[in-house]
Specification:
Length: about 220
Amino acid sequence: MPISELLTVPYRYKRVLPDFQNRDDIRFPDTLVAALLDRFTKPGDKVIDPFCGLGTTFFVCEEKDRIPYGIEADRQRHDWVKSRVKTKENLLFGDSADIVSFDLPEMDFSLTSPPYMPHWHEWNPLYNGDPRYDGYDVYLERVQSIYAGICRVLRKDAHVIVQADNLTNERFSTLVWDLGKALSEVMTLEGEIIVNWSENVENDKQFTQCLVFRNNMNL
Ligand SMILES: C[S@@+](CC[C@H](N)C(=O)[O-])C[C@H]1O[C@@H](n2cnc3c(N)ncnc32)[C@H](O)[C@@H]1O
């Protein structure tokens, strides 16, 4: 069944930011992760966040008795999260494009917010700005190939959620729609959950979007 839903959750963070990070919009609120875990997983499920960042998925999984796994390419963020979680061995430092080589067990669910890129930027956040990989098309191809790898460690029919926003700084950039199109080449796009923040919204951003995919190895 296609998914087209509105989910209302408070915009609330549990942990203070590390000193090296000055903006909350690098991470998603714990409240959203909790609501999605309740909806799509059960205790004991293995959950992978391929862009682990400041570890929100990881922390909330531990609170809810899910088994977290994460990959993070930034050493400082990786070390900060690792020093605060219980299942340290499941947090990997590296590039999520190499996921298949990490020898992970079969995952039941994936949730992340990938690094954002507006279509008119050249700087590709998935290659840390290496100029050999400039450009939005390269970015979308890279996200697609990373998710092709993630599908190989997910059980068949597992849900995959990608949280993102269409970008409204300076110019409108259709990031959510472009991610939906690129990723539906490697997974089945079931639909979207529009998340309405019920309180304490930063930057006047009243909502965000979660694309809901299913791993379909037949694609
Ligand atoms: C938007 S943040 C994720 C935030 C996370 N959801 C949270 O709540 O803390 C995206 C993260 O992806 C990381 N990243 C970028 N490219 C990566 C790659 N190829 N492999 C793994 N991590 C990567 C960045 O360093 C950044 O921390």
